[in-house]
Amino acid sequence: MAKTIFQRIIDREIPARIEHEDDQCIVLHDIQPQAPVHLLIIPKRLIMRVGAAEAGDQALLGHLLLVAGAIARKLNLGSGFRLVINHGPHGGESVPHLHVHLLAGRPLAWPPG
To answer: What is the pTM of this model?
Structure first.
């Protein structure tokens, strides 16, 4: 299977605007932002999508959410932000590599989509 665009970014084969990186994940600015702040929180270990995650992925999944909170605090997003995980083509997934969207910087309508 070919590498996803996210794996290529993690391997530094493609440049990206990186906001944060640690041993478990990388946080990038989305190249097609849907809000003034639109970051992608991506695990370095490939999990195809949230519905494919297993019990052994629990700590990594929790880490992604903790990183989202830390980034929101760093960027002073106290007025609100949204976390989104898409699953499958009908769920809006465009890259088959689990990632969490962090959206902020404008009022976010409900329901989404």
So the answer is: 0.94
